[in-house]
Amino acid sequence: METALRPCSLVPARLPTTPFEKPILHLPFNSIPTSIFRPIRQCTARSRVFTAVSSTVSTEPINPVEPEIESHGEEEKFNWLLQWYPVMPVCDLDKRIPHAKKVIGLDVVVWWDRNENAWKVFDDMCPHRLAPLSEGRIDQWGRLQCVYHGWCFNGSGDCKFIPQAPPDGPPFNTFKKACVSIYPTTVQNDIVWFWPNTDPRYEDIITKKQPPYIPELDDPSYAKVMGNRDIPYGYEILIENLMDPAHVSYAHYGILRADREGGKPMEMKLEKLDHSGFIGKTEGETSKFIAPCVFYVPDQFSMDRTNGSASPAETKKEAQRRMLRVFICIPVSPGYSRLIWAFPRNSGVWIDRLVPRWMFHLEPNLIIDSDLYLLHASEHKIMDIGPSNWLKACFVPTKSDAFVVGFRKWLNEYAGSEVNWPTKISSSLPPTPPREQLLDRYWSHVVNCSSCREAIKGLNALEIVLQVVSVAAIGILAATKQSLMSVSARTALASMAVLCFAASRWLSHFIYKNFHFHDYNHALR
């Protein structure tokens, strides 16, 4: 009995066990921490440690072309559960409310602790009756409150108030079982990251290992527009697709000024491959994959386009222009992933001050949609043959596939051929939904993007205003005697009614195609 009622000054380290069922160059990478969390107190009695190391799978491709790489197969293996994982860009998190997210199979809640002036990532489960804390609220004292029975928790995971407990009774809120598991959390490059392990050994992990740091994302001389989207196919498919520039002319025809017949040989090769990722070269430019989430590559915009015909001054100016593509790929659950993208550039920075952020999201979302069905279907076929057999099943003879092959070799040789999920969830893929649901943009992006949420509200309001003006104009025409209004006035009023109605219909179509569903038919392009 004494053990059961022993007070607790520690936070229990517990990871959720419920499965996920809903859809939901040489480069300077320095490790510059921007930690925002305090040392984490843990309830050691409830600590659960996940230290499974990926098993070794060695699969040699049977393709005619093999990338020339420096590979260290005997080095340490990649541990999926001993890494920093991004959750969301800070710009898309509302400090007033808790946010539910799933990352690497874990259900977490992200919320702003105004008392510590820091973002916190908790296990999304109240210790009382296991209700999701993400459905709760931030109370007037800045605590996270579960709205099922009102239990309140501070930024360290301690239960500070149980409304049902008598004031003169035992201090139930101090017991170890009343604590919430809290994950180490930090903010890097304006993105919230967390460490998916609550064991006390990792409470100061930020001092030993930091998330990948991309200097351009913090450089004030660069413009950066971040975006995010939930993707209905897995992490492996997402990241290898982003490593493949050869598909752009075909899969994204009509969007990226791509020539459908513009495919050509590409000089791509890997220079180093180990458990931490790889370094690659594309026509002289260096790209880098930092396992497990970051792929960082120069854009063609930053390369020399003068073909040697420009003057020295123009060549120097061109060389100073720089644009990068940063892709952060997050494993969510089998068949689902999340993409955070940013394209920092040091040219045309003034454009970002004039153009609303949501307008920069229209083209990336269309690009994602244009090959989404292809990749979703491809993932199901890969699952049928087995992820570890990818290099044997796929025929990838050209150098344009070097990065994709490199990623699959990394996955097989160092990471166990697939994501090592920390919870007991089925590895089978979800069934393919109807096309309109698969390519849905509202629930996969708009609700998770602060700028697009505000844009759709404003555009919906504008649509209603246009309809009201159109109806009002027609009403005035009908109610006003001809003798009281000149012909020119009636013509102007009728024209305004027609124009407002037409504008409202066009706006309705614009909203639907850009914020809800935009199909992409390759055969008719």
Q: Can you put this structure into words, describing what you see?
A:
The protein is 24% helix and 18% strand. The chain is an alpha+beta fold and 525 residues long. A 7-stranded antiparallel β-sheet has the order 14-20-19-18-17-16-15, with helices on one face. Mean pLDDT is 84; it is low at 1-65 and 301-308.
Task: Give the spatial strand order of the biggest sheet.
Answer: 14-20-19-18-17-16-15
> C-alpha Rg, in Å?
27 Å
Q: Ranges with pLDDT <50 over ≥5 residues?
A: 1-65, 301-308
From the spread of the alpha carbons, the general shape counts as globular
Helix content: 10-25%
Number of strands: 20
Biggest β-sheet strands, sense, barrel: 7 strands, antiparallel
Give the integer mean of the pLDDT values. 84
Strand share of the residues? 15-25%
The span between the termini is 72 Å
The class by helix and strand makeup works out as alpha+beta
The count of helical stretches stands at 11
